[in-house]
Specification:
By secondary structure, the protein is of the alpha+beta class. Strands 1, 2, 3, 4, 5, 6 and 7 form a seven-stranded mixed β-sheet that branches. The two termini are about 25 Å apart.
Length: about 120
């Protein structure tokens, strides 16, 4: 049986910056300048979302959410394996803690973005 590792990770962020501004900073700090875009495609109906159209090592990056003053508002960066890879069975590997640690490290000089703790309800 062909088993494929399926990587998926979520990290929640708070910021008063617009989604494109948060995406630009994350792009520079994590993805070597690969740009987020595609907001006009409305890949999620509920909230704005931008994504990196090129996969990085077979992973897709999507930044979704919105700024505002409500307690539940913010952004979520999702990293996941591309769904177009062939497999008979997949084994899921969570990247949440890794993403939180990585983003806290690379964004330490960007106090306009707060990286929140891992949401244990996603596990």
């Amino acid at each position: 049986m062909n088993v494929l590792p399926f990587f998926v990770g979520f990290v929640s962020l708070k910021s008063n910056l617009e989604i494109e501004e948060v995406g630009d900073i994350i792009s520079r700090k994590v993805f070597g300048g690969l740009k987020f875009g595609g907001k006009e495609l409305e890949i999620y109906e509920e909230v704005p979302a931008i994504f990196i159209s090129s996969s990085v090592l077979g992973l897709r990056a999507v930044l979704q959410g919105y700024k505002g003053f409500g307690e539940g508002e913010g952004y979520v960066l999702t990293i996941s394996s591309n769904d177009n890879m062939r497999y008979e069975k997949r084994e899921e590997f969570k990247l949440d803690y890794y993403l939180v640690t990585l983003l806290r490290s690379v964004l330490e000089d960007h106090n306009e973005i707060t990286v929140l703790d891992v949401d244990i309800n996603r596990r």
